[in-house]
Design brief:
Layout (H helix, E strand, L loop, with lengths): L4 E8 L6 E9 L2 E11 L2 E5 L2 E3 L5 E3 L6 H16 L1
Antiparallel strand pairs: 1-2, 2-3, 3-4, 5-6
C-alpha cells in the first residue's frame, strides 16, 4: 500500500524570527501536527515535531526512517510554504 503525503495546513509566522511556519501534514488517514519551517544558517529547513523530556532535552516524536523520505517530505513542505 503506497501512501501519499499532503500538506494539510500552513500557519505562517510574521516578523523577524527564525521560526517561519508551523505545518500539518496528512499521510493516508493520519495527520501529523507540529512540523516547523525554520531559517537556519544554511537557509530554510523542516524540523520534525518534538517534545521536551524530564531531563530537559528535546526528543523528536515523528521522524523519517530514510534520507529519501526525509528529502521528499522536506521538498514537499518547503514548496508548499513558498507558494
Amino acid at each position: 500500500m503506497e501512501e501519499t503525503i499532503q500538506v494539510s495546513r500552513i500557519y505562517k509566522i510574521d516578523g523577524d524570527t527564525k521560526l517561519k511556519a508551523f505545518v500539518d501534514i496528512s499521510l493516508g488517514g493520519v495527520v501529523v501536527k507540529g512540523l516547523r519551517i525554520v531559517h537556519g544558517s544554511n537557509g530554510l529547513f523542516v524540523s520534525m515535531p518534538r517534545h521536551q523530556g524530564k531531563d530537559g532535552k528535546w526528543y523528536s516524536t515523528v521522524y523519517p526512517t530514510t534520507k529519501e523520505i526525509q528529502k521528499q517530505l522536506s521538498d514537499l513542505v518547503l514548496a508548499a510554504y513558498q507558494e
